[in-house]
Amino acid sequence: MYISIPLHLHRTLCLHRTAQYRYPSGPERVLTRSLSRTPDSSRAALKLRTRLGVTLLVGGGLLGAWWWVEREKQQRRRRQRVEQLRTVALGQGTFSLLDHTGHRRTKQDFLGRWVLLYFGFTHCPDICPEELDTLSAVVSALDRDPALPRLQPLFITVDPERDDVAALARYVRDFHPRLVGLTGTPEEVQHAGRDFRVYASAGPKDEDGDYMVDHSVLLYLVSPDGLFLDYYNRTKSPEQIADSIRNHIRNHVPL
Amino acid sequence: MAAPNSAQRKACWDARDQLWQCLDDNNDKTQSCQQVQGDFEAKCPAQWVKYFTKRRDFLKYKEKMQTEGFTPAGGPQVNS
């Protein structure tokens, strides 16, 4: 026969039957439970472990988020810079010059190559050799990485009156073997210089007919699309320039 | 007149460095460094001599500005 009995009575009856087990209740229950399950120290260790784990997870998550945001910011900055350089639109035109072997070269001939370009003159006391040494160091450093395309270093004279093909041939010998010197008529050279907004101004001639050409000192990076991408002044070390170029190559999106 | 080649450039730079060292040691007294000066002028084109002399003057001036400070040129006073 089924009799419905209130739970507490049932419990009491059951308890009564199994006298040795006394079902704990109230504050007793907590103490008994803790005593019957784990000792205090390992329970504390467990809590510490979980706390540590949670902290590391949250910390790691925060760090990851920060790193991701940083990367996004850097990429955005880089994109903005390329946009700015595109608006400035240096090196958009074409040039037609003679290289140091006497062959005519135009801008088209260098498309498809990464170009690192310097304007200078062979009678330059110290700055041009220094910059060409930097240029050579950068190209050599990038040459060492077989995965990267070979850069084309270029030297365009701002002193076409004295720097003819023979003079250039003598000059470029002292620098990177791939360095190509370019010269031409004063008009051709001016046209190329204007393309990159190069400032060049010949000084007064002395009794030997010698003179200096004051000019802006920059290394220009041109992409395989013929687009001017970046410039480097004298404060940049070869390592910094090489790093920057590596970045440009990595992020390059062909037009 | 051909441009100096790499060896000639280096010879000129070394002579210049020696001259500048001599001037530094002798408190910029050019009389004490006549021989080094002569060597420098022989090894470097005239234009380079002029250029490097001006360069040294500039570097000394810059050093003076950085160590001694300077008084800005007087101009119209603006109430800040």
Automatic annotation (TrEMBL), chain A:
Record-linked InterPro entries: SCO1/SenC, Synth_of_cyt-c-oxidase_Sco1/2, Thioredoxin-like_sf
Single annotated GO MF: copper ion binding
Pfam family, one: SCO1-SenC
Disulfide bonds: C124-C128
Subunit-level organization: Homodimer.
A GO cellular component annotation in the UniProt record: mitochondrial inner membrane
Domain of life, source organism: Eukaryota
Keyword Disulfide bond applies: yes
Residues bound to Cu cation: C124, C128, H215
Topological category with respect to the lipid bilayer: Single-pass membrane protein
Any GO BP annotation: mitochondrial respiratory chain complex IV assembly
Organism encoding this protein: Xiphophorus maculatus
Compartments, as annotated in UniProt: Mitochondrion inner membrane
Protein name, as recorded: Synthesis of cytochrome C oxidase 2
Stated role: Copper metallochaperone essential for the synthesis and maturation of cytochrome c oxidase subunit II (MT-CO2/COX2) by facilitating the incorporation of copper into the Cu(A) site of MT-CO2/COX2.
Transmembrane segments: 52-69
Family membership noted in the UniProt record: Belongs to the SCO1/2 family.
Keywords: Chaperone, Copper, Disulfide bond, Membrane, Metal-binding, Mitochondrion, Mitochondrion inner membrane, Transmembrane, Transmembrane helix
PANTHER family given in the database record: ELECTRON TRANSPORT PROTIN SCO1/SENC FAMILY MEMBER (PTHR12151), PROTEIN SCO2 HOMOLOG, MITOCHONDRIAL (PTHR12151:SF2)
Main location: mitochondrion
Classification via SUPFAM superfamilies: Thioredoxin-like
Keyword Mitochondrion included in the entry's annotation: yes
UniProtKB/TrEMBL annotation, chain B:
Compartments, record wording: Mitochondrion
GO biological process, alphabetically ordered: heart development; mitochondrial ATP synthesis coupled electron transport; respiratory chain complex IV assembly
InterPro entries per record: COA6, COX6B-like, CX6/COA6-like_sf
GO cellular component: mitochondrion
Superkingdom in the source lineage: Eukaryota
SUPFAM superfamilies xref list: Cytochrome c oxidase subunit h (SSF47694)
Keyword terms of this UniProt record: Disulfide bond, Mitochondrion
PANTHER family: CYTOCHROME C OXIDASE ASSEMBLY FACTOR 6 HOMOLOG
UniProt protein name: Cytochrome c oxidase assembly factor 6
Species in which this protein is naturally found: Xiphophorus maculatus (Southern platyfish)
